[in-house]
Amino acid sequence: MNKDIVELQEDVSKSALYSEDLAPVPPSKRTWNKWNLAAIWVGMAVCIPTYLLASYMIKTGLNWYEALIIIGLANLIITIPMILNGHAGVKYGVPFPVIGRAAFGTKGIHIASVARGIIACGWFGVQTWIGGLAIYAIFNAITGTQGELGLSVGKFIGFAIFWIINIYFIWKGTESIKWLETYSAPILVFMGIALIWWSYAKADGFAIVLKQSSQLEKTAATLTDNDNTLYLNLNVLNDKDGNPKANQYQISANGIKSEWKNINKNPIAISEIASVDAIKSGSKNIQVQFRNDTGAAPIDSSVVSALLVNPTENGGSKLWGYLLWLTAMVGFWATMSISIADITRYAATQSDQVSGQFIGLPATMMLYSFVGIFVTCAAVINFNDILIADDAPWDPVSLISKFKSPIVVIIAQIFMLIATLSTNIAANVIAPANAFSNLFPKKISFKMGGIITGVLGILIAPWWLLNEISGFLMFVSGLLGPVLGILITDYFLIRRKHIELADLYKVAGIYSYNKTGFNKAAIVALVIGVFLALIGFWVPALNFLYSLSWFTGFIISSVIYYLLMKKEKLELQ
To answer: Among 365, 371, 392, 398, which residue's Cα sits nearest to residue 214?
Structure first.
């Protein structure tokens, strides 16, 4: 008998808190080894947000290796609580909503699990819409039709098809999910390596490609106000030989444009170049467009706003900037760290879950963040129509759109479909399906919970809220540190990894907390942790608490929960 696993010795099948889907996974069904778990993480981590992570940091002035180090360190940090929280999943074979009953109570766990589930439903809708757009792009490439910019029937059909594909894997159950992740992982790794090779071959060297990253740190146009004189600073991209890719610029303000002018010096006083009163008067709402007119036809950049900056401002402490980005990157997997037992319950040993997570998560996140950096830097060289950093194709969709070959577009979009599907199923379906099943175990199965997830993913209307809801979901995810802190503190420090397995399924068991269903210590710790993580949003002096919200909530709720549980001297077995 495996000493890592505790089996259920009592028949609790008639309890209202029990169902086959929430029951402990028996040793005979623990079929996921370390490579299956690593594959799960490859499938989850390879997605458009991962590809974009480094770009957010580089655009704020960090260089490529600083961004990569922060991403790597953040994912090493989050892997540790991920493994700690996954321990109970392996030992007891139960999902997060069940193991969480010990800390929060049989009813109190709904607060944490449903919050986690709703966030996943939001991401499910967003990812399904993105997958639908890939199907729509494949259809257009095959038929040779031009895709429409706004909403269209074709995009909704693509969304519906991809939604049905997701639901298929939900309905087939966890073994089909393991199959999907296991076979998609090597394909996704190959895709990343192929993208790096393509970039290297096109640009003639790694060093040449990575050298371009410093160009992407600069905003295309900025304004500085020195002694009441407004200056325009222009930053165009250079090719690999150091030659500017744009030679002209045009400014506009209040709807009035200047003539196209050659870039002869930099910075330029606005009063010297403006020929119209609306611009010469000192308007600080100025747009700039760049052009290369040396070829057969002029190539224009997008129109960008010239941002007003203070030339004496140093931008604050760089170390503080690192901490802020580290917090954001840790928060990226905040939700999965809470519900990781949903996956580790299928692992055969603790060794499998530890090695599988360490192999799969940090390495994949660093690889695909590097792919995003490297491919975008190479695009600066490989595509003549990228004149400024603002037009660099950081996201894969923009990159694919630059290829004219239908075959390339179709293959690339198929890869995107695989990446999106594997992320969606593992990260955005398993957790909410278990959370909804836990609400009414006898009435809602895992499959039905997955269907509810899919329906809610439609109801959020991701085609309208894509950008807004993504930011909101990232924000909320960063506030879930308190839940993880309470779970880990309860399991390791309060209960010393010992849980009465049968009582997790008893309405009047020790985890019903005097039949109220709520552990007051956990609820108080949760509320205080979230409150203190948020208070800095309204109180400037405490902004550091808000900026480091994940760490703030995790640490404060852990400490408060530990002290409250010790003070109450609850009888724990």
So the answer is: 392
